[in-house]
Specification:
By secondary structure, the chain is an alpha/beta fold. 36% of the residues lie in helices and 20% in strands. The protein is built from ten helices and ten strands. The protein starts with a helix and ends in a 22-residue tail after the last helix.
Length: 289
């Protein structure tokens, strides 16, 4: 699928030069960002249907730039160094970076994109959280309906602000994802937030009866229950053996693939390409989320 407005935006990135730019494209057309003197890039990992193993979405991750496509998780480097305001700025830069890198690739047609919201944003941002991002997507003529804004795992004291942020994003047309720290918390989120997806660690899928009930309720509410961090065949087989219902479930983890910059590379790692960066600039009227 072609997005002319996105292509026009990329052409501006590729023709403007400045050593101080914080967003540019490399020779392969991938967008990169700069923050705290670190070069940033996007990596994407599949989310699949549990029964058919069909790719239904990708999740975007921020990585430091690496020619081998295995950069570091930049949040782990900056989380303790950056202030709340700086973390919010980085969070917004991430969403722009992942969005343009995702939709520039033809293989993403008809797939959803999961974008995480950092926990600091819940406390540090007031007002209309989703409006600015929606304006960016509208300007680039990108489908906001295909984006799931994935809210972080919360503590009980964060329940009110979590609900407030979720409602704001929903009013701006986004679908909402949530993370649960237990099957019980997933049940509470399903009742209280009515998210479009809930992620739970495969290690917490430890109560077959509750899990079956949760899957049935999630199906009735059109919510995807995603079991994440699946790394072994044994974990997948145990999950499959626990399914005593026809309710759909979804999976994600290193067992299926590693996060990769190129969607085609994610499907076939043997096609990895050395990526050389050119010094291309961010235009003065670039988007800020």
């Amino acid at each position: 699928m072609s997005y002319p407005a996105l292509q026009k935006y990329f052409s501006k990135l590729h023709c403007t030069h400045s050593a101080g730019s914080n967003l540019w494209t490399d020779e392969q057309g991938q967008a990169h960002g700069r923050y705290f003197n670190a070069t940033l890039s996007s990596a994407f990992q599949t989310i699949r249907s549990g029964a058919e193993n069909e790719v239904i979405a990708y999740e975007g991750y921020l990585r430091s730039y690496s020619s081998g496509d295995q950069g570091l998780n930049i949040w782990k480097l900056l989380d303790n160094a950056a202030s709340d305001d700086e973390s919010v700025e980085l969070d917004r830069l991430c969403r722009l970076l992942h969005t343009v890198n995702f939709y520039r690739q033809p293989a993403t047609a008809n797939l959803d994109l999961y974008l995480s919201v950092h926990s600091r944003l819940l406390a540090a941002v007031a007002g209309n959280h989703g409006m600015a991002f929606r304006r960016v997507l509208d300007a680039l003529e990108l489908p906001h309906q295909s984006i799931i804004l994935q809210l972080p795992l919360i503590t009980p004291s964060q329940r009110w602000v979590f609900t407030h942020v979720a409602e704001n994003y929903r009013r701006n047309g986004f679908r909402i994802g949530a993370n649960a720290g237990s099957l019980e918390q997933a049940s509470d989120l399903l009742d209280r937030i009515h998210p479009d997806s809930i992620k739970i660690d495969i290690g917490l899928a430890n109560d077959a009866s509750l899990q079956t009930s949760l899957l049935q309720r999630a199906e009735r509410q059109n919510c995807k229950l995603i079991f994440k961090r699946i790394e072994t065949e044994a974990q997948l087989r145990a999950l499959q053996n626990d399914q005593q219902t026809a309710s759909p479930y979804f999976v994600q983890g290193f067992l299926f693939d590693m996060p990769k910059a190129n969607i085609a590379i994610a499907a076939n790692p043997s096609h990895a390409t050395d990526m050389r960066i050119s010094s291309i600039d961010m235009p003065k009227n670039s988007f800020s989320i």
